[in-house]
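Supplementary material to the annual report.
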Amino acid sequence: MKEIFTGILIALGAGIILLSARKTRQVLSLLAEDRYFRDWRMLFWLMVFFLLGYGAALAFVLAGSKEFLVVLTGVIFFFGALFVYLVVRVGYLTIDELLKTTVSQEHTHNIVKSMLNSLLVVAPEGAIKTVNQAACELLGYREVELIGQPIDIIFAKKEEELFKGAGFEELINKGSIKNVEKTYLSKEARQIAVLFSASAIYNTAGQLKEIICVAQDITERKQAERTLQKQRAEQQVIFDTVPAMIWYKDTENRILRLNKRAAKSMGRPVAEIEGKSVYELHSREEAEQYYQDDLTVINSGEPKIDIIEPLQTASGEYRWIRTDKIPYRDQQGHINGVVVFSRDITERKQAENALHESEERFRQVITSLSHHVYMTEVTNEGQQINRYISPNIEPLTGYPLKKFMTDWSFWPSTVIHPDDRAGAATQAARLSQGQSSETEYRLVRADDQIIWVNDSGRVEKDKARQSFLVYGVVSDITERKRAEMALIMARDQALEASRLKTQLLANVSHDLRTPLNAILGYTEMLQEGIYGSLSEPQRNVASEIIDSTGQLLDFVNNMLNQARIKAGKITLNITPFTPAQLVDNVQSTLTVVAKAKGLTLTSDVAPNVPPTLAGDSYWLRQILINLVGNAIKFTNQGSIQIYVYRYNEELWAVQVADTGCGIPVEAQSYIFDLFRQVDGTATRGHGGSGLGLSIVKQLTTLMGGQIILNSEVGQGSTFTILLPLQTIPEKIQ
Amino acid sequence: MINHLALIIEDDQRLAAIFAQAMKMAEFETELIYDGEAALVRLAETTPAVVVLDLHLPHVSGADILHQIRADTRLAKTKVILATADSVMAETLHSEADLILLKPISFTQLRDLAARLRPTDVIG
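Predicted assembly:
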């Protein structure tokens, strides 16, 4: 008995040691997994072994071998224990059941094993009973690693765990949960999205026998979904950010999709519009109008583009919209709807309108001008192209505009006057060389009328084209030309008249001087007593004759000089002259006249005056003659003195002083004016033309000099002419 | 023998007479010529001390006669008094004439000026 007890202890100890080792457990587990051990035959053979062992032991006992008995008992109990363990571990309960199910189970087992979806069978307490190949592959475990483990280790998220998760109650209540997205956690801690279903299996007694969990790997589907979502989002961004309003409408005038811009133009969010009929969103009239366009596109299958129309936005403002309506075809080519693509072109339209207005204004300005305006391009090769010809060319030339547009050479070869073509060609050549140019020429109009034009071309380099642009204005200057010619004629006539007058005066002067000379000569001869001595009254008469002759002569001289000054005929002829001689000459010329009035005429040249000075002696003499003649005229008694002296470094003074009646202060300012004298009575009393002093003044001014007048009524007058005469260096003298 | 011949070349006979009288009174022998051509003929024969020369003459102008005189070395000593009414023309001949008198010419003035031109009597 003691030996049997010892054998049991040994068997138990060996079993415990074996089972406590992980490897042994695995081996056993594998054995349990093995199909062979899982069917009834395994149990049968185990039973056979047990019975054989037990029988052998019994035989040995009967034979009386005690050592043998001990070993045998251990072996028997070991196998007995193994048997018990396997029964418990594998869970086959009854042989009946086994007998009932083994055939179909093997079949099912094969199906389950080969299922593509992962399958786990879980015991009611949560341990994994069975896994298939797909589950092992999905989770990365080997079969043995999973069997016996709690099912919840394969769930990545705590809330998704089968037993602890929320879904468990549902599973128990409903018997199954279907297609729930869960995340498995692989052995390598990878998360795997799965579509998870579970069924609760009950035994005939209504107790939960097992739970079958099926999971489909949807990681790829998830990935694809995410990619799709991303693409959708991107498309939406593009759809919403494209600077256009886009609608997608079906054939029934419903808006299926639209972008944000389109929605904004309608004043509603996208969600409020999508799926709605246009009739709900717009007035019936507008909706009809839009639909009509749609129908045209739908029926014809042809896009309708560039529909430009005003559109009232949600804010009530009207905008110019350019719309393209494009038929939307499915893959079979059926038209399912219309894509409406609209762009706000208000700014462009406004710019276009402004341009139109500006062009219209420009055109009106051009047309309202009486000038003809043109623009010609001169290419790199020197070719001339008419880029613009204003319509004013028609009234200007009488030829139709078309004629000039089609034939570049019509203007130079036909319209320009034959005599002026060379000149016009020269201008054209200058322009084609890039030089702005202006010229005048004649045109022969269509009605043979000849007109004068001014053609002014301004050249600008066109950098883009590498050519010149000539901007030209042709203006009718016929009237101006006429006026100019009339003016030229008038001038020529006036010059001729002036020349004739001067000639006439010269002739008159000559023809008067000759007889005057005879009168003077004979009277003097009478006075000199050549024809016998004269009585006192006779001598007086002779004096009067000489006096009158002198006056007449003065008048003639001054008339002639005035005419010459006025005609601008006087140019100063600066030559050396001797002041003393000049004074002498004047004195001897006028002494006769002075003597006739009983006056003394004296002259003096200061010692500081050099013997020779440079100046126009002819006109100096004239100044002196006039001053002395004037003095004689207005002096009734006393003397007249001529005095030449140096006034300062630059100026020389020629002074004529008399003892005459003097000039009132108020008259001093105007006595140098032409034809002015102190008063009318003086003119009559003294004779003279009123020219003398004016000529003095004009000549003095011409010589760059000035006149100083000192006079007082009753005290005589002193005229001092200051002249910038040049001295002549000693060597030349 | 000292030549005291004064040639009066003047187409106006009255003026010629007056000039001649003045010259005579300045102790010149006088000869009157009223025509430019005749004057040239006479100048070719004789060498006057003074020529009183008008500018406006028939056939040959006084200016031409003056040029001829100045071009002729034989007449180098001959003094020329231009007596003219044409002051402009007279100006242009300024350098060639010895004296320019603008008409009307005073009888006494001519007489006095001519007297100054008279060659001094030197007994040869």
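The interface with chain B takes residues 506, 509-510, 513-514, 516-522, 524-525, 528, 530, 549, 553, 573, 588-589, 592, 618 of chain A (CB under 8 Å).
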